[in-house]
Amino acid sequence: MTPVIAERRRKYGIVGGLGPLASADVFFKLVQALPSSTDAGHADLIFQQHPFRSAGTGSAATTERKLYIFEMIRNFEKQGVTTVVLPCFLSHTFIDELKTNTSLHIVDMVDALRQHIRKRMPGARRIGFLASDFTREKHLFERYFMPPEFEVVYPRLRDGVDCVTEAVYGRDGIKGGNLRGRPVELLHGACADLIEQGVDVIVPGMTEIALVADEIRVLSVPLVDSNQVYAQQVVSGQYDSPSSVFKVGVVGGVGPAATIDFLNKVVRNTPATRDQDHIRLIVEQNPQIPDRTENLIGDGADPTVSLYATCKRLEEGDADIIAIPCNTAHAFVERIQPHLGIPIVNMLTETVRFVRESWPGYRDIGVLATSGTISSGVYEKALQSQGLRQVTPGEALQTRVMEAIYGNNGVKAGFTTGRCQEDIAAAVEGMIAEGVEIIILGCTELPLLLPLAEFIGKNGKRAWLVDPTNVLARRCIAHATAARESARAVSTNSLTLPA
């Protein structure tokens, strides 16, 4: 199971403004519930309510309502809230949309009612709901109270009038502050119809109904105080930590074209049949990170702080892993990894492992990279750890490699044909002439010049070209897929647990 929020100090954020009177009722009952369930010193309450034009004018889950709640949750995140209280049934029709986009736990009001009925009324099967037209149309309660365990029952229309919706949203309804008279009469009629249909319990499916519960409680079947049940669940419930969507953080801009190439490879390699099957990515595009090669072989600015700052922003954005689609930047990974709370997927290590597993009979591995990458020894060290030997171009050919990357007509200047392609092809030919058959394209721009997996030299000899960014993309996909499968397994197990 996922870890349960228990010992940590809870800080509750209550979304107000959707129905001011009902929200205040839930807040009051929540305050009442706190002393009996937890130390007052172990919980904080934040009640926020902002002007919301559509709060009491209609029953539809409008875009305005969704964005209002989401912005409120974002504010709660900034205030250190751990648990969101959403006292609005209508808003529970899109609760999954909210959960997908926050790391905070949103206590589910309908689930709280289901748990309450299972525990306190184990024999109840026919559940009568006093619900709005919108929640009925969206089948909100049917999602939770499923057959054969339960049967959801709604009041029938009376002379063409939806008594429950009219009692709350009507001209003289509860939302307008009318807690006696016609709204109560309409709700009495709705309850009488439910009793006539043989329900075992009546559950208000609108938080406003709790405001007049005492006026309609004299019934032959129990009437649940939904707001009270919700408040008790918020305080005493042992609910699982929300499962967040796995996110891959990408250090972009090193260089910009290589970043786009890497993102394309992530998309192409992801087994997806629809948009939602793809991996969630956070890209921090920072082309102002100082040139890594200039620092390693010259007196260029140190990129360590810029790389670290970019990684920290990804970490703060809730990334689970970090991908850096730049070979040379990996010369700085050992400096910054100990100071991060999430792992950097080491492209060099993964590439060398891929080479070892794919071509187990080869020992000499060619590396085409910037002079900075070669001088740093990062690939040489990674290859040696797998019992392999690095082979690099001679001085003249290495000059042509650098020209293909950094020259006026090089790939970093936006060229992928002509002089730059001739220069890099010459370097590959030189390695083939030395008997090298496996070549790592150790600069993320080089696959833009050598897009094929195999190079055939002028003499007919061949060499396999290994694209580290493609290896990195596949590893990130593997991490995300494993996390998704794990979350799915946890979800399946939790569904099979006894109530």
UniProtKB/TrEMBL annotation:
Coiled coil: none annotated. InterPro entries: Asp/Glu/hydantoin_racemase, Asp/Glu_race, Asp/Glu_racemase_AS_1, Asp/Glu_racemase_AS_2, Asp_race. GO terms for molecular function: amino-acid racemase activity. Pfam families: Asp_Glu_race (PF01177). It comes from the Bacteria. The keyword Isomerase applies. Keywords: Isomerase, Plasmid. Belongs to the aspartate/glutamate racemases family. This is Aspartate racemase. It comes from Paraburkholderia phymatum (strain DSM 17167 / CIP 108236 / LMG 21445 / STM815) (Burkholderia phymatum).
